[in-house]
Each structure stands twice: as structure tokens, then as C-alpha cells.
Amino acid sequence: MRLDKLGVVIALIAGYAVAAAPFATFRANRIVAGEPQTLLAALPSWAGPTLLAVIAAAVLVGLFRTPSTLRLAASFAALAALLLLIGTAADHLTPPGNTYARVSPASGFWLLLFAFALLAADALTRLRPTPPLRILVLVLAGAFLGFVLFTGSWDRLSILKEYSARADSFWAEASKHVTLALGSLAAAVIVGIPLGVLCHRVQKLRAAVLNVLNIVQTIPSIALFGILIAPLGWIAAHVPGAADIGIKGIGMAPAFVALFLYSLLPVVANTVVGLAGVPVQANDAARGVGMTERQRLFRVEFPLAFPVILTGVRIVLVQNIGLATIAALIGGGGFGVFVFQGIGQTAMDLVLLGAVPTVLLAFAAAIILDAAVELSSPFHARTSA
């Protein structure tokens, strides 16, 4: 059996994580320095060897050129064991009745999680699953995480203790985060697609619009948020009713406008590229059967350009989910509230309370929209038929 190049990298990462990196960190309370714990020290006597055996088996499967289905099963088994047993480490390290102690996953856990997630991604790539199957895998992964949370396996982990102290505010900030990401995307689609059609039709307008939007993209997000404070503050002070509907110098308004401006370039550019890629023969055939320009646009050009336009929407949504985190700096809310509070308090688990949901949302959005793009492509439609 020959070695797999990616498997060698995964084996090196896993070997370092087990042999040299701490698996968990114990702290007497949330602000003191942590005590790193190795994998065997962090877990009960039965769990440590069990996890090592699962890790070793998964590494061996990945190290050689084994069937993709076996690689996928091994990676999923290793990931499930890691996610279940990190909660066991928290139970094992926390003294009975102690409500102040904090146990957090350490670098070894995160490296192992990354290594086997990489193995799973490689196996899925080789298997080339259909879009519905990819969505099913995502749903099953979400269901597994929900099961772990519902059973209370992670309740003693520090991140869950941070959540329990902020449960109400967590869901309020989650709502703001999703509103900012999806709302700015919807506004960009409503404005950007017609603007892209106009740029496609009017060649002289295209360069000017795309250059302006490119300039907007080069402005750092924090700087753009700051630039918008003054004009929106002036509008709130001088336009009757503006403040009543939420337009203010700080808060969600400047964050929403900034995300909207950042979203325009991918939507407009992909609309132009998608329409430009429509075959000339398709338009000629539409003219031949007597279609008007409007009918050609909606019945011929848009359906053929839709996968490219949807790719732009995917880029925007993933981008906005990440950028919405920075909105907390100007009072816009979102998961960034926990990230910046955690940085200010030197509480990394509070940082994770904001960062982990953001990453998971972006990851899920990318998978779902990637599947939608593939399903909507003409090539997929032909092969499915």
C-alpha cells in the first residue's frame, strides 16, 4: 500500500497534537492562567486509551491510499469521538461541586479536529457526492451537534458556562447578526442585479460602476463603518422620523449600509459576467421566435446566467456573516459583541462563544449555496436528465 501525501500531513498534525500539545486547559476560575493537560491526563482512565485507539486507526486509514468511503467513515468516527470526549474531559477535570472552575479545549484538541475535518473533506471531494447528499451530510452533522448539546455532554465546558450566563443576550445578538447578514444581502440583490443588467446593456457605464465598487471594496471595514457615522448621524438629527426607524450614527444602520456597499461588487460583477456568458445562439433563437427584449431577459438570459449570479450571492453571504462580527465595534450587535467582550476581559471562551457560531453559519451557508449553484447549472441539469 502506497502512502497518501495528504495522509502524511494529517498524520504529522495528529502526532504533534497527541504527543506535544495540550488536549484541554484547566483554570480555577475564568480569569486566572490555565494549566495545560495532556490527552491522557485530561480524560478518565477508560476514555484516554479509547480516544488514542480511534485516533491511531483514523490516522492509519488516512496515511495510506485507502477507499474513500473508509476514509470518510474513519474521519467521522474520530471527529465524533473528539466531540463527545471533550465533554468527558470537562467532567473529569472539574472538582465536584465547583462552579468556578473552567475547562476549555486546548490546541491539541483543535489540531485534531482540524486534521480529521481535513480528512473528511478530502474523502468527500474524492467521492464527489451529489448536492442533495452534501446537504444531507450537513444536516446530519448539525443533528449530531444538537444531540451533544441536548444531552448536556458539554455543560461543564467553559464556553457553555459562558453561554448559560448570557443565554438571552446570545439569541438576541444572534438575531441581529443574521438580520445584518441577510438584510444587507437582500438589499444588495434588489439593487445589484438591476444595476448589473444595466451595466451589461450599457458598455460605457460598466467600467465606471465597477471601478467605484472596486474602490469601496478596498476600504477597510472599520474605516468604512467610521466614515458612515457622520452622514448617518446628520440624517438622524435633521431628517424627521429618521431616528425613529433606526437610522443613527452608531448602531445597526451604519453596519447595514457598510455591508450593503461591500455586497454590491460581487452581485453586480457576477450579474455582468453571467449575462455576458449567455450564448449568442440562445439570444438569436429567442429573437427568431419573436421574443421582446424583456422576454429574452427573463426567459433566456436570466435562467442561463443564474448559476453565476447565485455564485455572487454565495460570496456575499459568506462575506457578510464574517463582516457582521465587526459591527459590534459601532454598537451594531451580533456575535462580535462576545468576541470583543472576551478580548477585553481576556476570556478566550467568551471569544469562542461569538466566533464558533459565526464560523458554523458561514460554513453551512457556503455548503448550501454551493449545492444550489450546482443544481441550477445547465450542465447538472443535462447530466441529471
UniProtKB/TrEMBL annotation:
Annotated compartments: Cell membrane
Keywords: Membrane, Transmembrane, Transmembrane helix, Transport
GO biological process, any: glycine betaine transport
Membrane topology type: Multi-pass membrane protein
Database matches in Pfam families: BPD_transp_1
Source organism, top-level taxon: Bacteria
InterPro entries: ABC_transp_perm/SBD, MetI-like, MetI-like_sf
Entry-linked SUPFAM superfamilies: MetI-like
Boundaries of every ABC transmembrane type-1 domain copy: 174-369
Chain segments annotated as transmembrane: 43-63, 70-90, 102-121, 133-154, 178-200, 212-235, 255-276, 297-317, 323-343, 350-369
Any one annotated GO CC term: plasma membrane
Family: Belongs to the binding-protein-dependent transport system permease family.
Protein name: ABC transporter permease
Source organism of the structure: Phyllobacterium myrsinacearum
Lineage: Bacteria, Pseudomonadati, Pseudomonadota, Alphaproteobacteria, Hyphomicrobiales
